[in-house]
């Protein structure tokens, strides 16, 4: 701002005393003081508003940077997730393709055995007891007496 030294202030007071005279000098000093207060107040308000705007701009810049870093992290997470899911998807597709072919074969084998239970039962020797002969002894087994 304007720098006023003590010598300049005294010189201004003498000029004001000569020009205005002793009767109007106190009123002029009050008016000048009020005007100076208004100017300082206005200047302080402008400075505070500029500082607030700068803070708002700084906050907006920080928010943009945070959003950009969050998007970068999100993209990185997506790519890592895709890398992780890719082997699982391939394995699942392989299991599905392998499971489709053997299942029909297994089902046909099950269907064949389900259609022939009587044949299987007839092949079992349930009517006659099983006789095991041991070559070392000549005695019949305990089941045949």
Fill in the keyword field for this structure.
145 residues, mainly alpha, 2 helices, rod-shaped
Which helices and strands occur, and which strands form pairs?
Layout: H1 6-115, H2 117-123
Provide a descriptive summary of the structure in words.
It is a single chain. 81% of the residues lie in helices and 0% in strands. It has two helices and no strands. The chain is rod-shaped, with a radius of gyration of 53 Å. It starts with 5 loop residues before the first helix and ends in a 22-residue tail after the last helix. The model has no long low-confidence stretch (mean pLDDT 80).
Question: What is this entry, summarized?
Answer:
By secondary structure, the protein is mostly helical.
Distance from first to last alpha carbon? 133 Å
What is the quaternary state of this protein?
single chain
Task: Give the low-pLDDT segments.
Answer: none
Main sheet properties: none
Order of helices and strands: HH
Beta fraction of the residues?
under 5%
